[in-house]
């Protein structure tokens, strides 16, 4: 479905995750963050950049990945994206949410 | 004479031996398979052991019986793969290969979580992904008086991703039949955003949890098990009490992969998801749970991979281009308890949807919908596994490439 974010039309799924990573930009990230009640500061952008790089390398976002990243620690990650950090961080970073087969 | 070596004689390795023995010219190629263990387990059967639905004999056979004549079977521990030299070191001999197929699978790693594999392991903390774990859990359940049963997933990816959910459904039926369901509180704890994570499956199946009174706790990323106080605690400091914890520990590729320096953080080998060739070495191919491809770690996936890989091994040795054919196809029966099951059929692109299988309209199996016939299909699958699947015999009407026929696809 189509959705207006930061005055741009983007394709999202039923849960509001971007369907095309190419449509992501920082304004759109800010708009999603507002909906998720997260105010993006420098540390968020570093996390988002790391998450997007992992995604480009086909490496699914995981707590273990964050632990081993050297960029983030888990406690901080929880503070940055409170209540479902993997889900929220994925959504704001414009990548699909971590999922199982059904 | 050239050498093709297969490492691991589980589901994937055994299938590849059976496929390739008739495909490679015998006067040019010697095929060798290496596995240190004698027993071949029917791993999907581990789900049924704890509930006394299957007995020990239903899930194990001697592995040698399934290795075809014409393939050399070596029962030794594998020490190391040395890709730069095209060599595999075994405990007291070294083999050289022209083509290597790695099929060493994945296994649980409870030691990765603090407190999990401590003094309470297999006392009131169990896995059901190993033969030993499933049997220990069966013995516990036989005399358990009830309390808080917590069914838990540590982190993704895991082998057979729906098995923990099936465990929850079967536990509900098991305790009902024993007349003690009221004494058992079942909670399903997952690091994901739900027991079901895909929109169509959530819409079609969430009623199962409500109907069976199974509580769902989502977004739970375990930090440690407090085995003294019977709690699991996550990184957000949420604690869940249990009397009986049935956990799915972290899954990792074999230590061999780590020793050989070939894996990612979880010892899975970086692999091309369409050709199954390893990314680092062109004469090394990876099949089944050992790879890092984003497909489910399941026998049906390995079965479809085997068909594609058999072609690509032939292409590779003839110097032809590899086919980018593997589409992530998986086809799984999911037990829902009360003698019913679901069937799902999906791939990298297509999420599980409603429909009929394998034929449009007539089925006879229904997709993403509970039925008694699907349950019979799941039970029949054990026979198919031992008699067709690992022997490399194609299953009629079910192709490696997923078909969209018979599926109700709306977008």
Total helical segments of chain B:
7
- Structural class by sheet pairing and helices of chain A: mainly alpha
Rg of chain B, Cα atoms, Å: 21 Å
Cα radius of gyration of chain A in angstroms: 13 Å
Q: Which consecutive residue ranges of chain B, at least 5 long each, have pLDDT under 50?
A: none
Number of strands of chain B: 24
**What is the count of helical runs of chain A?**
5
Q: What's the β-strand tally of chain A?
A: 2
Query: How would you state the average pLDDT of chain A, rounded?
Result: 90
CATH H level, superfamily name of the largest domain in chain B? FAD/NAD(P)-binding domain
Overall form of chain A: globular
Q: How much helical structure, as a percent, in the residues of chain A? A: 40-55%
How widely separated are the two ends of chain A?
A: 21 Å
Summarize model confidence as the mean pLDDT of chain B: 95
Strand content of chain A: 5-15%
Question: How are the strands of the biggest sheet of chain A laid out side by side?
Answer: 1-2
The strands making up the biggest β-sheet of chain B line up spatially as: 5-2-1-9-20
Shape of chain B: globular
The CATH topology assignment of the largest domain in chain B is FAD/NAD(P)-binding domain
Number of domains of chain A: 1
């Amino acid at each position: 479905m189509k959705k207006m974010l930061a005055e741009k039309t983007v394709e999202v799924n039923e849960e509001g995750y971007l369907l095309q990573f190419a449509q992501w930009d920082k304004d759109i990230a800010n708009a999603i963050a507002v909906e998720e009640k997260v105010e993006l500061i420098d540390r968020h952008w570093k996390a988002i950049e790391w998450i997007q790089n992992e995604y480009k390398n086909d490496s699914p976002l995981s707590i273990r990945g964050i632990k081993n990243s050297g960029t983030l620690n888990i406690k901080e990650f929880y503070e940055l994206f409170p209540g479902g950090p993997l889900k929220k961080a994925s959504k704001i970073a414009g990548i699909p949410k971590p999922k199982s087969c059904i | 004479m050239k050498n093709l070596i297969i490492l691991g004689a589980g589901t994937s390795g055994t299938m590849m031996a059976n496929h390739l023995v008739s495909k490679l010219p015998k006067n040019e190629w010697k095929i060798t398979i290496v596995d240190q263990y004698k027993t071949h387990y029917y791993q999907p059967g581990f789900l049924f052991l704890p509930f006394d639905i299957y007995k020990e004999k239903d899930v194990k056979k001697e592995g040698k019986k399934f290795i075809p004549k014409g393939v050399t079977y070596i029962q030794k521990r594998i020490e190391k793969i040395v890709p730069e030299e095209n060599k595999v070191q075994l405990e007291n001999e070294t083999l050289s290969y022209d083509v290597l197929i790695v099929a060493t699978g994945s296994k649980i790693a409870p030691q990765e979580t603090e407190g999990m594999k401590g003094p309470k392991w297999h006392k009131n903390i169990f896995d059901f992904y190993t033969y030993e774990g499933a049997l220990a859990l069966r013995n516990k359940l036989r005399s358990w008086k009830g309390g808080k049963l917590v069914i838990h997933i540590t982190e993704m990816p895991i082998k057979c991703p729906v098995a923990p959910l099936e465990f929850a459904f079967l536990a509900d039926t098991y305790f009902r039949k024993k007349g003690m369901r009221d004494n058992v509180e079942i909670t399903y704890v997952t690091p994901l955003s739900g027991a079901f994570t895909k929109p169509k499956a959530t819409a079609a199946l969430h009623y199962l949890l409500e109907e069976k009174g199974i509580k769902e706790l989502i977004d739970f990323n375990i930090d440690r098990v407090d085995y003294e106080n019977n709690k699991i605690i996550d990184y957000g400091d949420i604690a869940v009490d249990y009397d009986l914890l049935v956990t799915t520990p972290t899954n990792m590729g074999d230590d061999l992969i780590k020793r050989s320096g070939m894996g990612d953080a979880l010892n899975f080998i970086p692999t091309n998801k369409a050709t199954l060739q390893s990314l680092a070495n062109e004469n090394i191919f990876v099949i089944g749970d050992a790879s890092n491809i984003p497909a489910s770690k399941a026998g049906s996936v390995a079965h479809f991979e085997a068909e594609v890989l058999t072609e690509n091994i032939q292409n590779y040795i003839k110097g032809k281009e590899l086919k980018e054919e593997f589409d992530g196809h998986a086809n799984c029966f999911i037990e829902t308890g009360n003698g019913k099951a679901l069937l799902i059929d999906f791939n990298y692109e297509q999420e599980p949807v409603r429909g009929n299988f394998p034929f449009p309209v007539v089925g006879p199996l229904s997709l993403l919908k509970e039925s008694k016939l699907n349950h019979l299909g799941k039970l029949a699958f054990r026979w198919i596994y031992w008699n067709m699947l690992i022997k490399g015999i194609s299953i009629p009407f079910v192709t490696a490439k997923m078909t969209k026929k018979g599926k109700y696809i709306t977008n």
